[in-house]
From TrEMBL:
Ketoreductase domain segment(s): 2-184
Annotated CDD domains: SDR_c
PANTHER family to which the protein is assigned, alphabetical: 5-KETO-D-GLUCONATE 5-REDUCTASE, ALCOHOL DEHYDROGENASE, PUTATIVE (AFU_ORTHOLOGUE AFUA_3G03445)-RELATED
GO MF term set: oxidoreductase activity
Name of the protein described by the UniProt record: 1-deoxy-11beta-hydroxypentalenate dehydrogenase
Source organism, top-level taxon: Bacteria
InterPro entries for this protein: HdxpentlteDhPtlF, KR_dom, NAD(P)-bd_dom_sf, Sc_DH/Rdtase_CS, SDR_fam
Disordered: annotated segments: 247-266
Organism: Streptomyces griseoviridis
């Protein structure tokens, strides 16, 4: 469970632990991670806390080693680490270094985790499920959200590629696309124009969405009730720009019937 010191990652860890699963929690914030892990342990959970910078390939490899050593077999990998980054600024004003940092966590860290875990999952030959946390921002882009939205689009593409790569194996892939979630990352934030949606759910609601999908072939996991409307608006916009050329004469094989067409009796 990456990004497990708070928000969705912590809620996922708690939900899995309540069900009796052993959980390896990973986060770059070691102090907060250990505190949260201690709370879950005190409540009877079987958790292991691993402080790791997931943008470091070596740290990710060590995390995978620890997970398999502690758990024996890994059934679910929640690729959840993420940062919000700069919001409210147009693309040309966002410092490039800040944009790179967002991509390092939201995209490249997810790539590294998948590369570290998936070969081992395939080698074990057991059913497993890989959950990638993207966002509704993988579909809906508002003003002033270039860094975050672009990184989430990239993560959606990675998840879709993994789904195709793993088709026919025992490893399922889902991409989690929550809208606004009440977490410390966004609490008090005014979403950029067109980016936030009209609903807010709890991190626990999102964790329940993931839990309900485990073992199924559901790829897209949406947690907010306004997701259908927001998606419809986006795809309607795409559809309006799709050209529909007139059919050529060769394609018009059957003339349209006229009002005088009658069936001749035999």
């Amino acid at each position: 469970m990456t990004g497990a010191a708070g928000g969705i990652g912590l809620a996922l860890s708690s939900r899995f632990a309540r069900a009796g699963a052993g959980v390896v929690m990973a986060d770059v914030d070691g102090g907060e991670l250990r505190r949260r892990a201690a709370e879950l342990t005190a409540a009877g959970a079987r958790v292991t806390a691993v402080t790791a910078d997931l943008t470091d390939p070596g740290a990710v490899a060590r995390l995978a080693d620890t997970a398999f050593e502690v758990l024996g077999d890994v059934d679910v990998v929640c690729n959840n680490a993420g940062v919000l980054g700069p919001v409210g600024q147009p693309l040309w004003e966002v410092p490039l270094e800040r944009m790179r940092q967002v991509f390092e966590v939201n995209h490249w860290a997810h790539v590294l985790v998948a590369r570290a875990f998936v070969p081992r999952l395939l080698e074990r030959g057991r059913p497993a499920h890989l959950i990638h946390t993207a966002s509704m921002s993988a579909f809906v882009v508002g003003a002033g959200s270039a860094a975050y939205a672009a990184s989430k689009h990239a993560d959606l593409a990675v998840a879709r590629s993994l789904r195709a790569d793993l088709r026919g194996t025992g490893v399922r892939v889902s991409v989690l696309c929550p809208g606004r979630v009440d977490t410390p990352m966004v609490r008090g934030l005014t979403a950029p124009r067109g980016a936030g949606g009209d609903t807010t759910v709890s991190a626990e609601d999102v964790a329940e969405t993931v839990w309900d999908a485990l073992g199924s072939d559901r790829f897209y996991l949406f947690s907010n009730s306004d997701a259908p409307l927001r998606l419809r608006e986006q795809f309607d916009d795409v559809w309006r720009h799709v050209p529909f050329p007139s059919p050529s004469a060769e394609e018009e094989l059957w003339p349209a019937p006229t009002a005088t067409t009658v069936a001749r009796k035999q």
